[in-house]
Amino acid sequence: MNEANVGTTDQLIVNMGPQHPSTHGVLRVALTLDGERVVSADPDIGYLHSSMEKIAERLDYRQYISYTDRFDYLGAMCNEWVFVRAVERLAGIEVTPRCEHIRLLMAELNRLASHLLYFGAMGIDTGATTVFLYCFRERELILDLFEWVSGQRLLYNFLRVGGLRNDLPDGWVEQCHAAMDALASRVDEYDTLLSENRIFIARTRGIGAITAEEALAYGFSGPCLRGCGVPYDLRRVDGYSLYPELDFEVCVEEGGDCLSRHMVRSRELRESIKIVRQVLARLPEGEVNVPVPRRLKVEPGEVYERIESPRGELGCYLVSDGSDKPWRMHWRAPSFYNLAPLDRLCRGHWMADMVAVIASTDIVLGDVDR
Questions:
Q1: Rounded distance, CA 350 to CA 330, Å?
Q2: What DSSP letter does each residue of 287-345 carry, written as one string?
Q3: What is the CA 47 to chain-centroid distance, rounded?
Q4: In Å, how far are 7, 14, 101, 306 from 241, measured between CA atoms?
Q5: How far apart are alpha carbons 154 and 74 in whole angstroms?
Q6: Residue 181 phi, psi (nearest 5)
Q7: pLDDT number for residue 1
Q8: What is the pLDDT of residue 163?
């Protein structure tokens, strides 16, 4: 035996994905392994590429709203909101107070639904089945509210330039209060089942860690960035909509690892419940729509609008040439940037840690590929 080869192994390239359960969408990761240690992780994207930004140039502003749902399909209300806000800024349209309250309400309910799905998926990815079932049980309460108001449970097409498709139906507010009460009583149980589970902690603490400086350099945002100790939340930084008038905490953790990203989302569940209750308590009467021309043409110009989606900074860049269609649109997708440092997050860890790392970034591949 050649003594030079004793204790060494050949590197092996293994494909992880693109099957849906383990990679949270059609993501292929080419893993270079030394034994079971990850030497490098090369994410291969584009399986869901649909030319959605180019399609925007062929449709008028109002026709395109339903397409935005399909970017981050777990945060569709937020997608619609950032797009109509961008169009309204270009066109100089100001919505009614009731409309603004309902839009914010829908965005926070969508954050809750998204974080609940993350919580359950993170649990089942790390071997905890019960919390997955519990989170989907509570998520159904929110999807019932969305279905009641919009007719849909995932892709809503509810917001309009200048307003909403319709007002809240009778009894909806009371049902929303009941859903928040039910969810608030069960969030602690999720932490008991998962966040405080010693097996889960062992699988996430110190895994996929990144420093605040590296996170900023990669373009991290949302819970991924706040899990690195950076208190960057557009609801506070930009103070858009009614957020400056509301009482809520920007949730920050210091570890920069899978556990820290998880705990940020766990705490944000409680904060979003608090926000929803405040908005319901101050919901004004009045109209939800303002008059908008049937064929909406806006003055030539450009605008970049951004909001805090469940995954981070969601931005829409629009350029108008004076017609009723965008001359150019670009989507700033937080999942795309949160996936960028995957190789950095995984190097040196075991192959079995890959699932936890990918789950902790909470990416949506429709948001990555577009």
A1: 37
A2: -S-----SS----SEEEEEEEEETTEEEEEEEEE-SSSSEEEEEEE-HHHHHHTTHHHH
A3: 19
A4: 60, 47, 8, 11
A5: 7
A6: -65, -45
A7: 40
A8: 96
Cα-based distances in Å from 87 to 68, 78, 300, 302, 311: 13, 14, 12, 10, 22
pLDDT tens profile 298-318: 989 999 999 999 999 999 999
Using DSSP bridges, classify how beta strands 159-160 and 163-164 pair: parallel, antiparallel or unpaired: antiparallel
How far apart (Å, rounded) are the C-alpha atoms in residues 367 and 180? 28
**pLDDT (mean) for 95-119:** 97
Are the C-beta atoms of residues 285 and 97 closer than 8 Å to each other?
A: no
What is the tens place of the pLDDT at every residue in 236-276?
999 999 999 999 999 999 999 999 999 999 999 999 999 99
pTM of structure: 0.93
Mind giving me the DSSP string for 201-265?
HHHHTTTT---HHHHHHHT--THHHHTTT----HHHHT--TTGGGS-------SS-SHHHHHHHH
Q: Which two tokens stand for residue 121?
A: 């998926």
Integer Rg of the chain from CA: 21
Q: Domains of the chain (ranges plus CATH)?
A: 3-369 (1.10.645.10)
CB count in 10 Å sphere of residue 343? 16
Q: What is the per-residue burial (b if ≥16 Cβ within 10 Å, else e) of 77-116?
A: bbbbbbbbbbbbbbbebebbebbbbbbbbbbbbbbbbbbb
Residue 98 has pLDDT above 80, yes or no: yes
What percentage of the chain carries pLDDT values higher than 70? Answer: 97
* 291 neighbors 162 (Cβ within 8 angstroms): yes
Whether the Cβ atoms of residue 177 and residue 171 lie closer than 8 Å to each other? no
Helix (H, G, I), strand (E, B) or coil at 159: strand
Look up residue 350 and give its DSSP letter: B
Tell which phi-psi region holds residue 138, choosing left (phi > 0), alpha (psi between -120 and 50) or beta: alpha
How many C-beta atoms surround the C-beta of residue 121 within 10 A?
Answer: 18
Q: pLDDT tens-digit profile of 192-235?
A: 999 999 999 999 999 999 999 999 999 999 999 999 999 999 99
The arrangement of strands across the sheet holding 326-332 comes to 301-309, 312-320, 326-332
